[in-house]
Amino acid sequence: MGITSKRYLSQLKEVFKVAEAGKIYPVYLFIGDRPIIAPQIEKLIDCLLSEGTREFNLDVLSGDSFSEGTTLELLDSRGLFPGRKVVLLQDPPFLVSAGTTKARWKKIYAALDTGNNARAGELTSRILSDINLDPDDLTGLSERQIKEALDWPKDLPVGNFLKFLESNRRDLCPIESRHRTSGEGILSWLAQRADPSCSVLIIESEVVDKRGSFYRKLKKYGPIIDLDREKKDRRQGADFARDLIRKWVSEGDREIGPQAVNCILERVGHEDLVALKTEVQKLLSQAERHTTIGIRDVQDLVVRHKGEELYQLTDALGERDLGKCLNSLDYLLTQGIHPLAILQTIANFLRRMIVLRSAIEYGPGLGAVRNLRYGTFKDKTLPQIKESLEDVLPTAFKTAHPYVLYKMSKWVQGFKLKRMLDLMSSMAELDIEIKGGQVPDRVIIERLIFRLVSTNDYPKRP
Description:
Helix content is 57%, strand content 6%. It has helices spanning 9-20, 34-48, 54-57, 68-76, 101-113, 117-130, 143-150, 159-168, 184-192, 213-218, 234-251, 258-268, 273-286, 295-301, 310-319, 322-334, 339-361, 366-369, 374-389, 395-399, 402-411, 417-425, 427-436, 441-453, and strands at residues 27-31, 58-62, 85-90, 199-205, 224-226, 255-256, 292-293. Helix 4 links the parallel strand 2 and strand 3 (85-90).
């Protein structure tokens, strides 16, 4: 039956332990910020699907295109390969309500605070759709009127969001009716037809209305893994963050001293788990290769604020704004972000852009996605892109939110595939060059940025 969510990390261990032992539930609910819960969902999927069947027996449904009928059809159908089938349902509308709006705005505030504009845009689009409000409807309203219209939390300043809204208004999705349902069909499937040896439903949601009927009834069918920082009371929040830090470090086959843990919390805080995870990953990749991460490692590598400018850098790269790129790079280096972490960020950006550019170019065509509104891209163009990839659909397309892909589809128009491939092939060489220390790190990365955002074609470096 359902496992309580009061012990957090010990509960996670129990979920994986019983799954690995063969005790499988028909449904699992994960609650929390996607960067935090996504790795846990990936680990569970690895327990549920045998090696080699993941790409064929896993279906991912976005909440924006949710249909209860489609969900039930997938659960009742067989996978392409023999064995269990897994359906991952992301942010279904029946788990949120007007009562969760303020909690969701707080997540957008946290995303803006860490410089993650893509995530803020994704979440804002979803809320505006749910409350039937178009971004243009806010034009001309006073700050007080906007806060009232959005049901903005009284304890949060709204200034950063208003600046974001002004700059990104045209990129936010228009009002689209979302399929409303209570989820009763899924509950009926769980009660009458569910067989975890054949199919398993995994639900992930940033926030949940715990007073809702679906949530209350779901608890008797499977575990609820609640890692939402809004759920925990303030007294226990710091202790929970300490446990998470130790867990992440342990998963990286390292150890960390108590003073180092406290130093991380002093610099980052315990409320924003996404920012915490970013800093821990930085420590794991850049700290000296000894067993224990100490306080000196934290002092050298962890920045003293929650802002994460790496997202700003990728946005500037996508917009091909050289000035913003160089300003962002200067900020990152000044704050002590390791050059290899910046290089990895650029490599990840290139990798995603190459896949999307190829899919569009050899699918619907670049002209078909130019000047599209979000709704048209999501409902018509994105399915065409996925169909063109057929059986080789990359995991990035299965897990990425349509809004993120929409924003990137606007960027790829200005990037030639050959140049991106050439730059991607030079990453290993640049990695060695940075480690060699003969050329200043700033010069190496600036040179890469110039080559990436320039409108001229440069030959590959010898």
